[in-house]
């Protein structure tokens, strides 16, 4: 069954990643095994510290939720070798009634060509005007004729070639086969057999007839094959021994890959009139075949969103996915769904507080290691309970998780926020917890760095501003804020780009040189964004 991805927002923080892992674990525990945690960006050093401490690996990283070829119910017919006989391939085509063509592969599994019924029909019609076999493996001939070799010359023959002739009694010499480069089919006709062996024709096919010991041991280079079929059927079947690699279509093939987006594939299919198209995997090996029918009702990816509900913060291609649930503690934003879904949005400081309640609702207790991670996530998102978003429920939940994990919240919090920022580039710091917003027609970004020594971080102000100017120019944003949230000072140093009056009016402060300190301001979502929203309407 296809997975249901549980994912947080882009540039994920600890709460986002742990929430995805915890909710997937909860659903798996109650029997919904298809739920799988995922993340949309690089795991931060803080989150990696938490994962390492409790013995977890980072979740799978997603880059897109666009509907891809791999999401289609495409056909997976038999993949044929170039050496397969036309006869065997035709049987397979007839067995696959709904498939217009079969893929033909090289020895390494990569695409060689496509074989359709039209290719086989064209080959058979061409034989009306020229019944010649060219270097066809003897094993192929034996296979289609259900034949067996009768003499030593046959044991030394690997391929057969020549004009196929049915030896009928003739009075005129010129009407008989008269060249060595022939494949002669005959019945119980000793004179014809002797003539063929004396001429050393390439191959003699004995149809429903016995061969005398004298003729069998006759000195000749002719390969003698016996078949249970009559001459008429044998003459038709022998041409089915040709390897399909010689008749399949190999030029101007239109191929698609498993990761190709369906909307782009649909555009390509409209340009061509092929009955079906080969699908290749990342190693260029054949994965199946695609027809227009498969594009009518593509199977959409399924996703559960945690810790966000804004398109700009979610995975690219979300509009093509099927959103099943939203579990969040932020304001309701702009995500729309085609069907009613389960939404759990509560005014608490951490998504993991909500998910801990969902464990309780189902009568389950998270494992000690998972509980430890959930406690760490709550501490991180509430800034050790100092954020204005923090509620008494967050504190009680974190304490319960800590008891289950047998850890100290104070020690865990110090370990999380004492993680050094030394040695990191300005880009790494700026984009670790970076979110974009659209408020009253204005695009802006707010990044947040939680630390224990904001004055030292402020020494890198010009380095941050340079990167912020570059980013704002690239994205066409008139406004950008970097919060240096200090756990010890219980406030945030603000570095900003944009109009000074906006900062002055929104926060009732007097900014200077693109910086200002906002005491008691610890939360982006509950303090910074609401103040700007109120100002801009």
Written overview of the protein:
The chain is an alpha/beta fold and 537 residues long. Among the domains are: 4-67 and 301-417, inorganic pyrophosphatase (n-terminal core), CATH 3.90.1640.10; 426-536, DHHA2 domain (Diaminopimelate Epimerase, Chain A, domain 1, Roll), CATH 3.10.310.20. It is 34% helix and 22% strand. The protein is built from 19 helices and 23 strands. The strands form five sheets. Strands 3-2-1-16-17-18 form a six-stranded parallel beta sheet. Helix 1 (14-29) runs antiparallel to helix 12 (368-381), helix 12 (368-381) packs antiparallel against helix 13 (392-405) and helix 18 crosses helix 19. The chain is elongated.
């Amino acid at each position: 069954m296809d997975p249901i991805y549980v994912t947080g927002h882009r540039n994920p923080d600890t709460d986002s990643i742990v929430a995805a892992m915890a909710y997937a674990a909860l659903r798996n525990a109650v029997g919904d095994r298809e739920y799988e945690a995922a993340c949309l960006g690089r795991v931060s050093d803080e989150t990696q510290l938490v994962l390492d401490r409790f013995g977890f690996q980072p979740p799978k990283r997603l880059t897109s939720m666009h509907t891809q070829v791999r999401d289609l119910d495409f056909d997976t017919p038999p993949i044929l070798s170039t050496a397969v006989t036309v006869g065997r391939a035709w049987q397979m085509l007839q067995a696959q009634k709904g498939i217009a063509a079969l893929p033909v592969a090289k020895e390494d599994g990569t695409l060689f060509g496509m074989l359709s019924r039209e290719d086989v029909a064209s080959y058979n019609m061409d034989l009306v005007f020229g019944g010649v076999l060219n270097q066809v493996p003897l094993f192929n001939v034996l296979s289609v004729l259900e034949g067996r070799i009768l003499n030593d010359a046959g044991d030394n023959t690997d391929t057969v070639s020549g004009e196929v002739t049915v030896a009928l009694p003739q009075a005129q010499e010129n009407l008989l086969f008269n060249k060595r480069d022939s494949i002669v089919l005959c019945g119980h006709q000793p004179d014809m057999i002797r003539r063929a062996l004396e001429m050393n024709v390439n191959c003699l096919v004995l149809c429903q007839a016995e061969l005398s010991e004298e003729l069998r041991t006759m000195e000749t280079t002719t390969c003698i094959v016996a078949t249970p079929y009559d001459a008429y059927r044998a003459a038709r079947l022998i041409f089915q021994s040709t390897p399909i690699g010689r008749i399949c279509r190999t030029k101007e093939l239109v191929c698609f890959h498993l990761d190709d987006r369906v909307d782009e594939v649909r555009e390509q299919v409209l340009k061509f009139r092929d009955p079906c198209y080969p699908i290749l995997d990342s190693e260029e090996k054949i994965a199946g075949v695609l027809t227009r029918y498969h594009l009518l009702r593509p199977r959409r990816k399924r996703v559960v969103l945690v810790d966000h509900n804004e398109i700009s913060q979610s995975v690219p291609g979300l509009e093509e996915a099927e959103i099943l649930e939203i579990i969040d503690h932020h304001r309701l934003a702009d995500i729309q769904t085609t069907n009613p879904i389960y939404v759990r949005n509560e005014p608490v400081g951490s998504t993991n507080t909500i998910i801990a309640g969902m464990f309780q609702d189902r009568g389950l207790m998270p494992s000690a290691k998972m509980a430890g991670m959930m406690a760490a996530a709550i501490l991180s998102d509430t800034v050790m309970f100092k954020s204005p978003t923090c509620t008494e429920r967050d504190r009680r939940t974190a304490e319960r998780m800590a008891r289950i994990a047998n850890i100290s919240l104070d020690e865990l919090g110090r370990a999380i926020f004492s993680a050094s920022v030394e040695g990191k580039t300005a880009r790494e710091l700026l984009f670790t917890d970076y979110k974009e917003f659209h408020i009253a027609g204005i695009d802006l970004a707010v990044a947040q760095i939680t630390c224990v020594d904001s004055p030292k971080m402020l020494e890198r102000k010009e380095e941050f501003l340079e990167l912020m100017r570059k980013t704002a120019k690239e994205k066409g944003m008139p406004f950008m804020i970097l919060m240096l949230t200090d756990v010890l000072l219980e406030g945030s140093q603000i570095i900003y780009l944009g109009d000074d009056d906006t900062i002055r009016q929104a926060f009732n402060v007097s900014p200077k040189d693109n910086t200002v300190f906002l005491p008691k301001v610890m939360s982006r979502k509950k303090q910074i964004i609401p103040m700007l929203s109120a100002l801009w309407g």
